[in-house]
Design brief:
CATH architecture of the largest domain: 2-Layer Sandwich
Helix content: 25-40%
Number of strands: 6
Largest sheet: 4 strands, antiparallel
Structural class: alpha+beta
Number of helices: 5
Radius of gyration: 21 Å
CATH topology of the largest domain: Alpha-Beta Plaits
Number of domains: 2
CATH class of the largest domain: Alpha Beta
CATH superfamily of the largest domain: Lrp/AsnC effector binding domain/regulation of amino acid metabolism (RAM) domain
């Protein structure tokens, strides 16, 4: 496995690792690690560094929804044009081109259900290319980016036998 992939594997699980720590873990010189990280940032391989937060533990954590969007691709740009427009909305956390029964998967966040409903009805569905939407609200999060949000508990249900 190449040095860049090894670095990416490490920082994808712990973005707070210092170049010195990465160098020690990989048996490399710190300057090699610094140069590799800078090059990956310049090449847009590394786009940013995020913290995974369990918002369910905070009051007023808001609402997240995944929206299935069917669109009409535009001539000469396909799905890219409409996807770029959707990406510009501040409510939108991610946009993915999908295979299957819909074209785009759009993840949005809002302070409440009404805010997301307004986004869908007043912003998203009014785009000319959008044919239809199906909105799914997140009820509970179990795992994000390899982080499990709760420790496994034993089943507390009573055993019922015939």
């Amino acid at each position: 496995m190449g040095l860049k992939r090894q670095i990416l594997n490490l920082i994808s699980h712990e973005a707070k690792l210092s170049p010195k720590m990465i160098a020690t873990m990989l048996g490399q010189e710190e300057n090699n690690i610094i140069r590799a990280i800078q090059q990956m940032e310049n090449d847009k391989v590394i786009l940013g560094y995020n913290t995974v937060i369990n918002w369910d533990k905070m009051e007023g954590n808001g609402v997240t929804a995944t929206i299935e969007v069917k669109v009409t691709p535009q001539r000469e740009v396909g799905f890219n044009g409409v996807a770029e427009r959707i990406c510009r909305f501040p409510e939108v956390r991610s946009v993915h081109l999908m295979s299957g029964s819909y074209d785009l998967s759009v993840v949005v966040e809002g302070s409440n259900l009404k805010e997301i409903a307004n986004f869908v009805s007043h912003k998203l569905s009014t785009l000319d290319e959008v044919q239809s939407t199906v909105t799914h609200f997140v009820l509970k999060t179990y795992k994000v980016d390899n982080f499990v949000f709760e420790d496994a508990r034993e089943d507390e249900r009573l055993v019922i036998s015939p």
